[in-house]
Design goal:
eight-stranded antiparallel beta sheet, single chain, disordered N terminus, about 375 residues, nine-stranded mixed beta sheet, alpha+beta, about 25% strand
Length: about 375
């Protein structure tokens, strides 16, 4: 009996193939085990299982949400910034250090004004003189002028004077200024010259013919004088004159007036009027150079001084300034009733003033100030 070789089987495309060792042609039998072939299909089912692995991606997407948590981290950055700002606020605290710098500067600036009264007023006057073409205003003259102004303040005379003319500058434009208010206006009582005046370093000289100067100071209304408080004065050189009854400064209404006369040649009487019809006369014992002052300090107190010394007094009452409606003239007198200029003088004056009444001490102080000023300028009469 013929033997068969061991039956061998293989699989092709999922079907079992029986091989009889080459003696019998290969016959294909349906394999009763095809079920494994469908079991291959479940094998592919893991492929959908990959889908869950994709679902991991969404899971990672939330994982990125911590990234916004970094934003709070940035919010910490502004936190130190405000913290540094207060640190800078300490810088303004250095500002008080700067305020210390102007403190001494401001303190030093106003110091000169109150320390030396009268210097500012003197400088205003000197500047006006120079601006008007005045000459000879050197440091010595400026210093002497400052001293004179200062002494008027320290002796309580500044507020008692309504006008005074230092007569510096050697020309009419400079000689006109009122030291109390050095403005080129009538209201400031500047002098307005008429006629043939001579202007020099000594002062102003009249010609005795047609020279006069208006002060624009009207006794009835101007200044601080009253019916019982008034004074006028001057500083002059000439001891003699060819004029009969010359008047060096004044305003009159018939026999009443406010005037001052040094006197005529050979006469030593110093004549003044203080509103009354009658003169007050002071008899000098020697030449009349220097200062001459008349003052009224009460209803019945009139005095005349020469070089600061009382030489006559009287108790004549009466007289008012109401009729003296024209301004005081220098070098002559003006009549209030008809504006006529009378009693021309030919003397030289280097200082003129007018204002409230002065007592004996005030007159002595003012005379000393004027005399020392003339000495400092090199033009003293004695």
């Amino acid at each position: 009996m013929a033997k068969f070789k061991k039956l061998e089987t293989t699989y092709l495309n999922g079907e079992r193939i029986f091989n009889f060792g080459g003696l019998v042609p290969r016959v294909l039998f349906p394999d009763p085990t095809p079920p494994p072939s469908p079991s291959q299909t479940p094998t592919n089912t893991p492929t959908p299982t990959i889908t869950p692995s994709i679902s991991v991606s969404p899971t990672q997407t939330p994982t990125l949400t911590p990234t916004p948590t970094l934003t709070p981290t940035k919010t910490q950055t502004p936190t130190p910034t405000p913290t540094l700002t207060p640190t800078n606020t300490q810088t303004p605290s250095l500002t008080p250090t700067s305020t210390l710098t102007p403190t001494p500067t401001a303190t030093l600036t106003p110091t000169p004004s109150p320390v030396i009264p009268g210097y500012l007023e003197a400088d205003l006057y000197l500047n006006a003189v120079v601006s008007a073409g005045g000459v000879g205003i050197d440091p010595a003259v400026s210093g002497a002028t400052r001293t004179m102004f200062n002494q008027l303040f320290t002796n309580n005379l500044w507020n008692k004077l309504d006008f005074f003319y230092p007569l510096l500058g050697q020309v009419a434009g400079a000689h006109k200024f009122n030291g109390k208010l050095p403005l080129d206006t009538d209201a400031a009582f500047r002098l307005s010259f008429a006629g043939g005046w001579t202007h020099s370093s000594t002062g102003i000289t009249m010609n005795g013919v047609n020279t006069f100067a208006r002060t624009y100071y009207v006794p009835s209304s101007a200044g601080t004088i009253t019916d019982t408080s008034v004074s006028i004065g001057l500083y002059h050189y000439n001891t003699g004159t060819t004029k009969l009854y010359p008047i060096e400064m004044g305003v009159e209404y018939f026999n009443q007036g406010l005037s001052l006369s040094v006197g005529m040649t050979g006469d030593v009487d110093l004549v003044g009027k203080l509103y009354n019809a009658l003169d007050i006369t002071g008899y000098a014992t020697s030449a009349e150079t220097g200062s001459l002052i008349v003052s009224r300090t009460g209803a019945s107190t009139r005095k005349v001084y020469r070089r600061g010394v009382l030489i006559n007094t009287d108790s004549l009452a009466g007289g008012t300034r109401s009729n003296l409606t024209r301004d005081i003239h220098i070098g002559a007198s003006v009549q209030s009733n008809n504006d006529s200029i009378v009693n021309y003088s030919d003397r030289t004056l280097s200082f003129i003033f007018g204002g409230q009444g002065l007592d004996d001490t005030e007159v002595a102080n003012l005379d000393g100030i004027i005399q020392n000023y003339q000495i400092a300028l090199g033009r003293a009469a004695y």
